[in-house]
Amino acid sequence: MIERRPFDSLGGADHGWLKAKHHFSFAGYNDARRMGWGALRVWNDDTIASQTGFPAHPHADMEIITYVREGAITHRDSLGNEGRTEAGDVQVMSAGSGITHSEYNLEPGTTRIFQIWIIPDERGRAPSWGAKPFPTGERSGRFVALASGFKEDHDALPLRTDARVLGATLKAGETASYTLAPDRYAYLVPAKGSVEINGMHLDARDGAAIRNETALTIKALDDAELVLVDSAP
């Protein structure tokens, strides 16, 4: 089963400095049919104006992954961590027992991100933060784990949940494959370009909610950049 969720059907809000689209219920957007997908709880598509951002605010017991599509985001938190994560890079914040952080676009131009929240396997652990570059050339033609709770994904940022976040870049006409275990949930979004997934068409920033499909074949109709979450029920 693959359910296409067109970009225009997503919830969202326009705050002026922030234009947000929500694949799942979030903040003022509430849709009982879109409360999450397996352990995946939030997938926000955020466009952040220059010299603006999210002031310090708290989180707890959530794995928060930021995939930077354009520009850069500057992070500061109550643990003393500071970092600038730019396009092609990924950051992970394990909120654990509680952390306060801010995220600002201090760049001269617009920043665009996906922010993905996944429910952790355990509550109350010590919070942490980390970031890492993932050059798009190194995931050309294949899916690469960017953040993962699986020990075999040595090069990925660690997650405290039975899930992985993967990225791939495809040239027009190229294909990539991914195998899902029978009980898994997957959610795919093309950050750029249009694709076919098992024959279903997706435009840029559409979502595909995937269940009971063990073999995924993604064909790029244009040059494409893909993000995929594979999570437990």
Task: Please tag this protein with its features.
Jelly Rolls, mainly beta, single chain, seven-stranded mixed sheet, 233 residues
Give an overview of the whole structure:
This protein is an all-beta fold. It has one domain (2-231): Jelly Rolls. The protein contains no helices and 22 strands. The protein has strands at 2-5, 11-14, 18-22, 40-48, 52-59, 63-70, 72-77, 82-86, 89-94, 99-105, 111-118, 128-133, 144-148, 157-158, 163-170, 175-179, 185-192, 195-197, 200-202, 207-211, 215-220, 224-231. Strands 1-20-17-22-15-13-14 form a seven-stranded mixed beta sheet, with no helix packed on it. The protein has a seven-stranded antiparallel beta sheet with strand order 2-3-4-11-6-9-12, with no helix packed on it. The model has no long low-confidence stretch (mean pLDDT 97).
Give the end-to-end Cα distance, rounded to a whole number of Å: 15 Å
Gyration radius (Cα, Å) is 17 Å
Give the name of the CATH architecture.
Answer: Sandwich
- What kind of sheet is the major sheet? 7 strands, mixed
Q: Strand sequence of the main sheet, in spatial order?
A: 1-20-17-22-15-13-14
CATH class: Mainly Beta
Total number of distinct structural domains: 1
